[in-house]
Amino acid sequence: MNTPQTEPPQSRRLIIAAITVMLLLSSLDQTIVSTALPTIVADLGGLDHLSWVVTAYLLASTVVAPLYGKLGDLYGRKVMMQISVSLFLLGSMLCGQATSMTFLILARGLQGIGGGGLMVLAQTVIGDVVAPRERGKIQGIFAAVFSLSSVAGPLAGGYIVDHFSWRWIFYINLPLGIAALAAFAIAFKPRGIRTSHKIDYPGAVFLTAALAATVLFTSLGGRTFAWSSPFILTMIGISVAATIALIVTERRAAEPILPPALFRHNTFVVFSAIGFIVFATMFGAITFLPLYLQVAKGVSPTASGLELLPLMLGIVTSSVLSGRIMSKTGKYRRLPMFGTFLLTVGLTFLWQLTPETPTWMLMVMIAMVGLGMGPTMSVGTTAIQNAVPRAMLGVGTAGFQLFRQVGGAIGIALFGALFSARLTTLLGAELPPGINPASLNAAAIAALPEATRVQVIASFTAALHPIFLTSACLSALAFVLTFFLEAKPLMARIEPHNADPGH
After folding, report:
1. Which CATH superfamily hosts domain 8-189?
2. Angle at the Cα of 394 (from 176 to 484), degrees rounded to 5?
3. Disulfide engineering: 374 pairs with which of 14, 319, 342, 438, CB 3.0-4.6 Å?
C-alpha cells in the first residue's frame, strides 16, 4: 500500500536546494581544475604528474559511487551524505593547502572519495522525499546543474586564477558546502527500521579493482603510457579478471554490492546502456570542440568556453522541459527516443565541420547536440528509481551513475586515440623538422608559416571527423536501444519500505 510523502513542502524545498548545491560543487570539481593546471604546475612543479590531478578525482569518485549506493541502502542516506560531504570538504581544504604536486594529487583523491558519494546520494535522496511522478522536474534541474558545471567549470577556474589564487578553486567549496550540509541536516529526518546486514567485502574489493583498473587504462592509455606498455596491459588484465571475479562473487553474496537482480529490470539495463553511450559521446566528442574553436577559428580559451554556451543552454532547456513533461504525463519512453535522435542529427552535422564553417552554423549544431543530450540525462535516474524495488533504490541509482561515468572515461580514451592517430597520419611531412604533432597548440600553430599553418588547420579539422562520425554512430545505437524500453507509468506516491534503514 502506498503512503503519502512525509516531509512538509518547506522541508522538501530545503532538502532539494541543499542537494543542488552539493551536486554543483561535486560536478564543478571535475572540470574547474582544467584551466588552472598550468598555473598550479608553475607554482608546485611536477609537470610529469599533471594528468593525475584530474585522474585522481575521476578515479576516486567513480570507484566509490556504487559503494555509497549500497551503504546508503544499508545504513541510511543521511549519515552517508554527511560522511561524503565531510570528506569532500576536508579534501578541498587540503587541496588548497597543497605544497607539492604529490600532496595535491592525494588530496584530490580524498576529495573524489567524497564527491563520488555526493553524485550518487544526492539523486538517491530525491527518491526518498519526492514521488516518481514529481521527480522528473527535480532531475531536470539536476541535469541542468551538471551541464552548467561542464561549461562553467573551466570558465570559473580561469577567472579565479586570473583574479585571485588557484587555491581558491578549492577553498570556495568550504562555505557553500558547510551551508548546504547544515541545511540538509536540519531538513532531512531519519526514518525506517535499522536491521543487521552483511557487508559484501569481496564484492567491494573486486568492484574497486575492476573500476580502478578500467579508469586508469582508459584515462592514461595512449597518453601518459603507450597502449602496449606493461602498465596498461597489466591494468587491462586486472580489469578483465576483477570483472569476472565480481560477477561470480555477486551471484553468491547474501547482500551483493551490485545485485545481479538489477540486471533483470529492463529499465535499468536499457537506460544504463544508453547512459554509457551518451556520456561517452559527451565527454569524448564535446571535449574536442574547444580544440576546433581555438585552432581552426583562432579564438582564445575563454572565448571557446563562451562559444559552448549553446550546448549548455540546449541541455538545460531540454532537461527542464523533459522533467516537466514526465511530471505532467507520468510517461517518459518517448523522451529518450527524441533526445537520441536529435543528438545523432547534431553529431552528423558536426561530422561535416570545416575551417570555413560559419560560427552561427556551428552554434546551431552545438545547440542541437545539447538539446539531444538533455532528455537522456534527466530521464534515466527517475525511470530507474521508479522501476526497481525501494530496497534497491541506492544501488540502482549508483549503478546507473557508474555506467555513465565509465562510459565517459572510455569515450575520452577512445576519441583521444582516434584523434592522435588521424592527426599524425594527415600531417605527415607537412610540419617543419623538430616539431611534434602532439606538442602543437593554438599559439604554436599561429606562429607557423602561412602555407603550413593553413595545412595544419585543415588537418586538425579533418582529424576531428572520425570522432564526430563515431559519436554519431554510437548515438544512433542509443536511439535503437530506446525502442527496447518497457513503458512503466511513474508512480504518484513514494513506495513504502519499512525496512529501509535510517533514511
Report:
1. MFS general substrate transporter like domains (1.20.1250.20)
2. 115
3. 319
